[in-house]
Structure formats: structure tokens, C-alpha cells
Fold each of these.
Amino acid sequence: MNPSLTVPQSRNSIPSVRESKQQVLWIGCSDSSFEEITCLGLLLDETIVLRSIGNIFLDDGLTCLSMVQYAIGILQVKHVVVCGHYGCGLVKASSSAGLTDPWLSKLNALRSACDGQLRGSLSVERDRRFVELNVLAQMQSLQRVPEVASAMGSRNMKIHGFVYDHSLSEMVRLDV
């Protein structure tokens, strides 16, 4: 690379309408889109987004923890949203070795723990229910993070769970 070809760019190189103020930490699935964010009427500049396989929050993962600490400690977000989506192929995945192993092993452990709730349902119903149970499990995992628990207690930060239904372009709220 030729250093003489690099030219510093001014702050206005890419026009911006206004300064953004992120108020929502959005934890969504890697294979989803931004459609679910706008479905709730949120502006993209109001959110800071963390995407992971199957919207899994790894409470021992550096990326997940650093994002949560930044969003809650520095940005002081008011809301954390965990959002899954029906038809997610990642929650159907089976255990395999590789880069996805921490995520898939967490999903497989959840599936084993919820086997009684899922047994007897039709395949589509079972998959939809498992997506919902996964969102609820990730919400619980978040609540165990000290910064999250502290923000919930001291400044009334809220955690919300949603599942996006692509076929209806609608969001389903999960009550805890």
C-alpha cells in the first residue's frame, strides 16, 4: 500500500442527518434482517445491534459481554431486546464440531431441557415453540450478567423478548 495514496477524510465525507442516540441493544439472529427492527417502529440509529447464531447470548463470550458492557455502561441503553424469528434454520441445527460449537451446544442443551414441553407437538409447532423458548432462555442468561442486573435495578432498564414472523411481517411479544 502506498501511504501517499491515503488521504484523511473529513467528518462530513458521508452526510449525516443528526447525531444518533442509541437507546436499544438489539440481540438478533445472524441470518435475520433489519426488517424486524423497523417492524417495531424503531429507527436504526436508535439501536446498537449484536447478531449471533440463533440469537444466542454467550455469557462467557468476549464479543457478547463487551457489547453488553458498552451498551449498558457507556451508552446507557434503556432497553435490551432479544429477538428470534420463526423458521430459523439455526435452531434446527444439530451438534457439530467447528466454530459454531459453543452456540449449537447451548441450543442442544436447551432442547434437552425443554424436551417435555416440545414432545408431542407437530414439527412446525415444535420448531416455533423452540424458537420462543430460546428467546426466553437468552433473556434469562442476560439477567445473570452483573451489569444487566444492576441496570435493571438502579435505572429500570428493561429486557424484552420478541419473535419475528416473516410470513406475516409481524412481531410476537413474549411475556416473561
Amino acid sequence: MARGKSPPITEAWRGFTFTRRALIVGGAQAAVGVALAARMAYISVVDNDRYVLESESNRVNLTLVPPRRGWIVDRNGKALANNRVSLRIDIIPDRLHNREIVLGQLRTLLQLDGDTMERINRDLKAASGFQPVAVAEDMSEAEYASILVRLPELPGIAPQRGFARNYPTGAAVGHLIGYVGAPNAEEYQKAKDPLYITPGYRIGKDGLEKYFQPMLKGKPGARRVEVTARGRVVRDLETQPDVQGKTVHLTIDADLQEYAARRMGRESGAIIVIDCLNGDILSFISMPSFDPNSFSDGISNNEYSWLRADDHQPLINKATRGLYPPGSTLKPMAAIAAVEHGVDPSERHTCIGGYRLGNRFFRCLGTHGSIDMPTAIMKSCNSYFYWLAHRLGYDAMAPTAKLLGLGEEFQLAGSNQRYGTIPDSAWKQSRYDQKWTASDSLNAVIGQGYVSVNPLQLAVMSARIASGRRLYPRLINRAFQNEPLPFSPEALAVARQGMDLVVNGAGTAVRSRLPLDGITMGGKTGTAQVRGLASGSRGQSGAWKYRDHGLFVCFAPVENPRYAASVVIEHGMGGSRAAAPIAKDIFTFLYDREKAMEALETFEAGWGGTIKERMERDYAAWKAGASSDPNPELPE
């Protein structure tokens, strides 16, 4: 049977076939279109808020504005710590394009070293989103301008005008005020405060800056800016200003503080000046010191290594952390204790150049002959006070020393104190499981042996003897009772009389009389042995670290004391030689600033300039001649 033929393909057949295919394709397209329309409707209506937020974040940058720290001012409102304008450059990671090119340009424009570039790259890896990464701080106007004019070429770079901590007198307030620094990781984990990872934000790290951190820190502001897709700022949208921290008022006299620090010259030690009316600390000096501005800006490895290498220990607060044998500055205290225990101050003792105890002979630095109590203070006769200590025992004297502030830890804002030792028989039994001996008493009465105190305690002792009250030292306006001391007027009068004779009679500090009409200073010198006489040296020569310390406690005016002070000069070879002349100039400054400044300018010319000038020169010399510690333990 023959096969049937396929029908011919006519124009009608072709039209039918095309129409069917068009319907199928068109239907599919319509279905897709409906789906897209439905999705767009969902996005427009249902998911609108989320996509608006994402769109907004793509063009708006919101950053915290670190608050300005509160000022720290002196008793007259003069700034001891304030703020200055600081120009800085940050990177916003999410806005950073062409990273290697941008970082290369920054390195060239700002002359960034390898360590800085390594730190920036490390911070960029750790950061995310809009969390800024610091590039440079405290820039000059020229450096800042070099970045501003190239911003279109530097996507993700954010210039900032902020504030940095400033200490107008530098090292003069280092150990008083302390310093600020960037928070570390541990501090951030503890606080969980986004400010702690904001470039330019600083917290108190030491001293009063740390103690008053809650008052000084302020409240942050916020800044919203419109940026292009490449991170260039187009305009400010809204700024919420920061709230500055509160002002802290101290009892310090800023002018006296600076003068006392400068007057220390190249010596190592401490100076404390106290107002005898209320216990206000007017000057709190530990020298040499560090410049807190260096820590605020981020101290370099080299500079920190230089400070650590100095054998005068500029990083140690000697005013409250330094412990020294008080030497003969303890003799007025011993006189008060003796009178309180019935010794007649007019009773005489014959000094033969020392005092014999059994088969030992305790030496005196002179042969003073027959002397009474005020004269013994004036001449600083060891033999007389050996005689008293052997007669009464030191257990009778130690309570008086403690009532005068020795061995006491004070409620002092921001201080970290070592309070030393005022020994007695119970202390030795507890500490060494040994009995107290008569020899221990003889050593203790002249401020040697087990006795150790800090300079603040010595100043308090002087203020309490001068005022007759249990004054408490204070750096802020804090109320203390300051009740009368339980000593007879006669006992206090004998101590004051002896201290008057030390300076204004024929005593050991006669060359430190005040060059003022009608104003006299009373005081007591002290020489604290660093090594015993058996070492073959009397501490007046040889290597600096083996020389005796020089101490001086004082008050003025003698007739109606207003100010009291202590001066401790490490390895100064004696109080009359090193400490008393400084006290003389400090008290002169309190009453005649012009005269005191004339003396200071002469001294500084011989020392090689001001504190800042000497520090800069010494650091440059050290840096040129020393290899830096590659891994110094920088403070956090």
C-alpha cells in the first residue's frame, strides 16, 4: 500500500504554528513579569524600612565625637591640665578603596615610618565597618592641609579636628596630675564602651587623671555626614555636640608648683609645701619627672627607654613612694616625746663626741660639751638624743612620731603611698622574732636603723609641730577635723625654739636664713646615711648612689606659722648643704616672688636652661649615644 503524503505547508499552517508558539512564550513572559511585579510590590511596601536603612547606611557615616576632658585647675583657677586643638587623620574601613595605593600616599605625605604602617595595617585587619582606625594624631597645619587638598584621591580618609590633653607646665606636674592614654584591650573589655575604640579618646591612666576619671571624662557627641560611594565627605548632616567633663579644683598653687620644680634643678628628690591653717598642699614635687604631654600623645619606645634608664628614676613618685631614713629631722619629735615623759628641757647633758653604751661607742659629729634640749636641736647633737633614748626607751617615743604623721597613710586623692616604718619593740618582735635592744633605740632616735618615712609624712610632721594641730594633708577641698594634738604647750614650744635656732641662731642651717625683713623660718636639717660608717665612707664623696641623703623640714613665719615644708634631696650629702637652701628660696617665693625668681634665673643659667630645655637636650644626647630597648614595657 502506498504511504500517505504529509500535507503541504501552507501560509495558513505557518500562521497557526507561530501563533501557538507566541502564546506559549508570551505566557511565560507574563508569568515572570507578574512575579517580578509582585516582588517589587513586596519590596516597596513590606520591606521598605529595611532597604531604606541599608540605602541610608551606604551614603551616611555616623561617628562618635570624643568628649573634651574637664580641666584640672589650681586654687586660683589656673590650668594645670587643659585641652588643646588636635588635628588627626583616620581611616573608615568600609569606605577604603584601593587600599595599597591610599596607604602608600599617606605614608609619603605624612612621612610615616615602618612601625606606624605596621600598626595601621594591624588595626585595619581588626576593625570593621565604620569603626575608625587612627593614622596620625597631633598633626601640624601643613600636614593636615596636605591631606585635605588630596581628599578626592584618598577614599575612606576622614580628617578630624578634635582635642588632646595639654599640661602647660609639663614635667612640673608629672607626678601630681599623672597622665592620660588610649584605652587598652583589657580596659575596653571591662568598660564595653564604644568610645574606648574611638581614635583620639583618652582615659586617665595615672595620678589625679585616673582618680577623677568619672568626673573628667564628659559625654560624647555624634556626627552624621553624607559621603560618596568612594567615601568622600559631601556635607555634614547633623552634629550633636559633646558635653565637656567637670572641672577639678585642687589646693595647689600653680606658680609655686612650677617654681619648686624648677628650683630642684638637676637634683633628685621631693618637695612638699603645706598650708598650716587647713592642711592644703600648695606644692607637690617629685623630680626628676616625666612630661605628661609625651604620654598623652603616645610616648615613643625610645623616650620611654630613656626614662627607664635614668638612675635618678623619673618614673618614681618620690613624694609618696620614696622611703628614706629621716636622720636628724626626727630630733624635734624626740624632744616633744621627752618633755611629755617628764624630761626637763633645761636639763643638761655633756657631749664628749659620742655616747657609750656598754662596750659600744655611738659617735656624734661634734663635741658639743654641756647642752640643753633646744641647743641640742640647734647643734644636732647625736649624743644628747642618744642619752634621751637610752633613758626613756624608744617605745616611749614611737607613739609621738605616729601622732606627728610619721608612718601614717593619708586619705589623699590620687596618691599611691608607701608609709614606711616607725619601729618599736612589738614591731621588731612581730617582724623578726627578736627583742628590741638599747642599740635599736639609739639608732632610731636619730632617724636611722629601722626608721623610714616618705617626704609627705615629713611635711605633715613639720606642719603639726608648727600648728599644734593634727592637720591632714589634702589636695581637694575635703573637710577634716584637724583637732589639737595631745601635747603640752611647753613640749611644742621647745621643739619650735630649737628649730628657730637651727636657722636663726648658730645652728646647722644658718646660711639658709630668709632674705626677708621681719619673716623668719624655723627648720631642722637631716643627713640620712645610705651606707654605714663601717663602709669606710661618710657619704660625702664617691659615686652618687652611695652619698648620704639630705633632708630639711621647716615652717614660717616662726612667730605665727603659716607654711610648712619638707625637702628631700637624694644623695645630696646633707640637709644644710642641699635641702635647706632650696627651702629658703621656696619660702622666699611665697613672700617675695621677684627676689626668688632672680635667684632661680641665676641657677638655671648654670644648670643649662629650664626643665624642658634640659630634658630635650638630655634625651637627644641619650638617643644619639644609646641603642634603644627593642621591647620596652610601655605603660598602658
Amino acid sequence: MADFDLVVIGSGPAGEWGAVQASLAGKRVAVVEREPVLGGTAANTGTLPSKTLRETALHLSGFKARGLYSVDATLRHEATVSDFLFRERRVKQMERERIHKNLQRHGVTLFQGAGSFADAHTVAVKRDGAEVARLTAGTVLIATGSSPYRPPLYPFGDPRVHDSDEILDITTLPRTLVVVGGGVIGCEYACMFAALGIPVTLVEVKNELLSFLDAEVGQVLRDCMETLGVRLRLGQTVESAHVPESHEEPIRLKLSTGEVLEADQVLVASGRTSNTAGLGIEALGVKQGKRGQIEVGLAYQTAVPHIYAVGDVIGFPALASTSMEQARIAVEHAFGPGKRTLTPILPYGIYTIPEVSMAGDTEESLRARSVPYVVGRATFETNPRGQIIGERQGLLKLLFHRDDLKLLGVHVLGEQASELVHVGLTALLTGSTAQLFVETCFNYPTLSEAYKAATYDALDQVRVSST
């Protein structure tokens, strides 16, 4: 029996940084990880691997050269799986090593095995079915993440049918691909494979992609995806899936419209389900949602006060960035004053081709609240740095309050969108107005200058409307 102040179950971003935060507060901390490698979904099957594959697809396809040289660069159809996955596997290994060193440096004790509650303050660690350790703690942090939801319609045992984790283990690149699910993961992978010149069809039950985006930006992204070669089937569902034994025959998916899609491989991206099976939390009174999401309060406390849950296991927003902050807040609450809360405005990054990122309000959310606003736009095509790098699709859209010109929303589509959004995010969090961008001297030439251009565009509209 080993006694700790905090036992963390899971070693993804939430688990890692929750453990480090507690260690910095002088607490004895243990991390239990069921997999033989550290890092959770973010390091091994999600955030970092998928973004690495995106960069690889852009490189192998010559995609960026198209705008730079005003030609349709020849796609590398001869690209192999080894080409596609080499960098992804290297990045995963480096991240695993970084996490291990970080936890060791902070004196965190690691246990490899599946953690489950023996009682409210005791976590049993099992490996290959045998108990290898029993840990007691005053506080337990559940950070077990999530796994792809697998609809029973699809035979996932077939090597041609993938979920969003298994797609990283493909042995051959698909000749044709159907992606089922038009959420963030589905859209990202659809773009990656389409960039390689692979015919991709994306099926989404809703009538629009990524409905949380500003409608204008969402439409631009949809147009870009179709230009990239992604065929969209919106407002449709898959009614049946025929996966023949012979790999020479195509997979056939019948849609709700009656259309039959044929494909070499299928990727099912139908959301995720929380990793709570086997934890034994039901007997403790910890409450869960439909797909296993653990219900928590403001400080990420469960119904059992000394048990906290953070990250993907609690559901939305299920981002690596927010998971880290949630863990820090939970640990501060458990061992300190606990007054900090998650920032009210979060950035969202979508690594489609092109990238999309946003923070704050959309036009739709402002109209729903009857907030008067003005829009400022700047395209990367007219930005000097955008012209240099051949960026034709980029757009920066700023939303200001019409009366006092306070910044209300930031929306970026194009090269480095997930980086550029932070300029606007900082302005949002500090309650800044258009004057901030007017007075800021930006490096020249940079894409960041688009903030000044978009601000002047908004000011011009205010001037015109007042005359």
C-alpha cells in the first residue's frame, strides 16, 4: 500500500499537468496509466499525430506550392504509407519522452496498469488482470480521456473500416475514402486525404459543417473543402454498410437518399465516448451522462467531493488546451484557495485545409442577443505577406460592438489561423476596442497586419453608416 496526496488516473495533457501542478504545491503525486506509453489521446492517436499528418499531407501534395507558383502542383500519388506516417511516429515518440521526463523531474511516481477504485480513497492498479499496486490518496483526479464511438452498423474488425484512432495504423493509403461524420475530426481527416489527391466523400447528418462556426466562415471553409476535392453529402445518414470479404470489391454505403457510395476504405468519425468503463465510479455515486461523460461542478468536482474529473472524460469542449487548464484549476481547488476558474473566452482551432480558428462571438450569437455590431474583414490575398507566401484563401473577420467598438469576436481562416487568433484572443480577454489595433505597430510584412486592415474596414463601415 502506497499513500499519496493525489492519485491521477491518466497521463494525457490533463493528467500530466494536474500532476505537475500538485507536485509544485509540494504534494506527493502518483500517475496511473493503463497503456504502455504515456500521453493519452493527445500524444498517441489524436491532437499531435493528426496535426503532424496534416503537415505531412501538405508537404507530400505540394499543396502550398500551388498558390506560390500559380500552378496546380502535381500531387504525389506514389506517396506511401511510410512517407505519410514517418514524421507522425517520430513526433509521438518525442512527446512520450517529454512527458516522462517532465513527470520524473517533478518527482511524480508512475504506475503502469489499469486504475480502478477499490473504495473512495483507494485506487487498485492491475496489469494483465493481476493487481500490481494499491494506492491511497486524499484526492483523486480522473483524466482518462475518451475513445472513438463505434456505431454497430460498421464491422470495425475489417482492416478497411477505421475509427479515428485506427486510421493512424493504416497499412495502405486508400484509393478512395468515405468519411462518415462531419465534425472536427471528420473534416480534418477528409482534408488530409483529399490533399493527397485521394477522392474523398464526407457524409454528415446535419445540413451544415461545424455549425458552431460563424456562418460566413463556415461557408468559406465548405467551399475550400469542395475545391480541394471533398465531395459533401450533407443532411444525410448511412442506412446500411456492405463490406465484402474480398478486398478487390468496394465497400458500399447506402445513404438515406438512396444513393450508394463505393469506396476502398471508410473512416467513421461519429463522436467520442468517455473512458470510464472499469473505473468502478458508479458504486461511489459519481454521476455520468449518456456516453459516459462524468458530471462535474465549477471546480471539476464530481458528486464525491474529493474526486475530480477533467479533460475529455467530462465531454465538451474536449480540447487538449482546455484540459490542461481544467486540471490546474481542479488541483488548486483541492489543495489551495481554489478561486480560479476557466477563462470565459476560449480559442478553438480546427486543422482543416485551410485552418480555421475562432474566439468569442459569431454574427449569429450577436444577432440572437440583439447586440449591435459591425464587421471588419481583411483577406490574406491582399496582405503583403499573404502575397509572398501565395495564400489566396485566407480571411480575418473581426466583430466589434457598434457603439463603443469593443472587440466581440475573432475569426480566422487560412495559413497560421490557430496562431493568429491569439492576437485577437488577448484583446478579447482584456476588453480592448478597435483603438488597440489602430495604435499597434505590427511587423511588416506579416499576416498579423490583417488585424489593422480589418479594423480599418470596420471603422470605414461605421463612418459610412453615420453619414
